[in-house]
Design goal:
Chain B: One of its GO terms (biological process) is ATP synthesis coupled electron transport. Chain B: It holds the Pfam family Oxidored_q2. Chain B: Belongs to the complex I subunit 4L family. The complex is a heterodimer. By secondary structure, chain A is mainly alpha-helical. Chain A is 75% helix and 0% strand. Chain A starts with a helix and ends with a helix. By secondary structure, chain B is mainly α. In chain B, helix 1 runs antiparallel to helix 2 and helix 2 (30-54) runs antiparallel to helix 3. The longest helix of chain B is centred in the last third of the chain and has 31 residues, at 61-91. In chain B, 50% of the residues are buried. Classes of the chains: A mainly alpha, B mainly alpha. Chains A and B meet through helix 1, helix 2, helix 3, helix 4 and helix 5 of A and helix 1, helix 2 and helix 3 of B.
């Protein structure tokens, strides 16, 4: 058993464990914190796949920014209520059956899937190669992404802005 | 050459995707639903990076598209949270069962 495989199993176990904890914890704040473990170990899995730049971006964006955004969302709403007891066990059972069916179908599709060859030089100048590919081949999607981020920023501000005239008319 | 086969990465991503799908379909709190969707997007990112190393045409393309996915996911989280806060201000609830204004 190589060290790479051991690292993969530990990281995968932490990732799945964090996600399962997210489903089973009762307090919303604890759910988000459990998911940070998942995000961090997914960054480790990116390192195993020789994608160092993606790993750093994962740590910055997911375990930093998105977690903080979600914590803000919890704190700006009712943060101390636990998620309510499930009222529809039949619906949950049906969803569980559907998800398990999906899992089985996809599992038999991807199990023992192999393409033979694999890239060996992805870790050499990883960030530089991503930058070159981004600014030569994918420059139009890159610019479109910047436009999308601007639109999302403006839309988020407009949506979350307090409507002063409406609140002056009367409470709710 | 790496000793890990491709399929274990795909199975790990599949398990994370299924957990995220179950959470998104059954949880009541809207913040947790958004978080579950983020988990599903993460599983897809693992697949993209794995195929960029082990795929039919291995190369840097999968990693570039993972960056695009992360950017779109961040935008989605910001807009989703803004909608959530606007709804909370109007209805005083984060329970997804009570957000049924379109049905009435």
């Amino acid at each position: 058993m190589s060290g790479e495989l051991i690292a993969f199993f530990i990281l995968g176990l932490i990732a799945i464990g964090g996600a399962v904890l997210m489903l089973n914890l009762s307090k919303v704040m604890h759910m988000v914190l459990a998911l940070v473990f998942s995000f961090l170990s997914i960054a480790g899995i990116y390192v195993l796949l020789s994608a160092e730049f993606i790993a750093v971006v994962q740590v910055l964006i997911y375990s930093g920014a998105i977690t903080i955004i979600m914590l803000f969302g919890i704190m700006l709403t009712r943060h101390n209520d636990t998620s309510e007891p499930q009222k529809a066990p039949l619906k949950n059972l049906l969803v569980l059956l559907g998800v398990v069916g999906f899992f089985l179908v996809m599992y038999f599709a991807v199990n023992n899937l192999t393409f033979g060859e694999q890239a060996t030089d992805l870790h050499v100048d990883n960030t530089a190669n991503i930058g070159i590919a981004l600014f030569t081949e994918y420059v139009i999607p890159f610019e479109l992404t910047s436009v999308l981020l601007l639109v999302a920023l403006v839309g988020a501000i407009v949506l979350a802005k307090r409507d002063d005239e409406k609140e002056a008319e009367g409470d709710e | 050459m790496s000793s890990i086969p491709l399929s274990v990465f795909l199975v790990l991503a599949l398990i994370l995707f299924c957990i995220g799908l179950y959470g998104a379909l059954t949880k009541r709190n809207t913040v947790i639903v958004l978080i579950s969707i983020e988990l599903m997007l993460n599983a897809v990112n693992i697949n993209l990076v794995a195929f960029s190393k082990y795929g039919i045409n291995p190369g840097i393309t999968g990693q570039v598209f993972t960056l695009f996915t992360i950017a779109v996911a961040a935008a989605e989280a910001a807009v989703g949270l803004a909608i959530l806060i606007a709804l909370y201000r109007n209805r005083q609830t984060v329970n997804i069962d009570e957000m049924d204004r379109l049905k009435r």
